[in-house]
Design a protein that fits this description.
alpha/beta
């Protein structure tokens, strides 16, 4: 809870309902869907740990799980990667993350356009922050074109639940998870109009 307002609580563990569990929730639901209806393409669901274990200001100390994965690929090199992080905010706002736009601009444009076509209002095509997340080592170390779906302002620009004891299920939304999940299902199963 290193962002907890009260200093005495900053060494406390957090539940991580959004920052940690939300991406996992979407992946677990995708696994269930894949079991019932095998996808038309190969899909690897990968769960990373150690993303937040680092030294502030030293990016290479973060994302330990994805760094290890990228250096020691246990599978054939994927064509691309989509990282899901902090996607359950009740006030979900998913702007284009700037590294994603650099690493895989075609996929960014396709997904945000598709989200707009599907009426998924959490997606915002305007680029905002560049965030060092698990997609960065995947691209920089393994050369995998990678993007990040992340709402870093949790819950909004005026308040913060990130890395605090307020990152609990009560501050998360099934509707937000649903928007991200629906887009992922559409991308995996609806292959028309995808040219890469």
């Amino acid at each position: 809870a290193d962002s907890e307002p009260n200093r005495k609580d900053r060494d406390q563990p957090i539940l991580g309902a959004n920052d940690g569990a939300s991406g996992v929730a979407v992946l677990l639901e995708l696994a269930k869907i894949f079991g019932e209806n095998p996808p038309p393409i190969g899909v690897n669901l990968v769960f990373f740990d150690g993303e937040d274990m680092g030294v502030p200001g030293e990016n290479e100390t973060y994302c330990q799980g994805s760094r290890f994965f990228a250096k020691n690929l246990p599978i054939p090199k994927p064509n691309e990667a989509i990282n899901l992080d902090m996607v359950a905010d009740k006030q979900l706002h998913l702007p284009v993350e700037k590294y994603s736009l650099e690493f895989h601009p075609e996929l960014v444009r396709y997904l945000w356009k598709r989200a707009d076509d599907m009426g998924l209002d959490a997606f915002d095509i305007r680029p905002q922050n560049a965030i060092y997340d698990d997609h960065v080592p995947l691209y920089q170390i393994a050369g995998i074109p990678s993007i990040d779906l992340i709402d870093f302002k949790y819950p909004n620009s005026y308040a913060n639940f990130w890395h605090t004891m307020d990152d609990v299920p009560e501050n998360c939304s099934a509707e937000s998870l649903g928007q991200v999940g629906r887009l992922m299902v559409d991308y995996i199963y609806n292959r028309e109009g995808q040219n890469w």
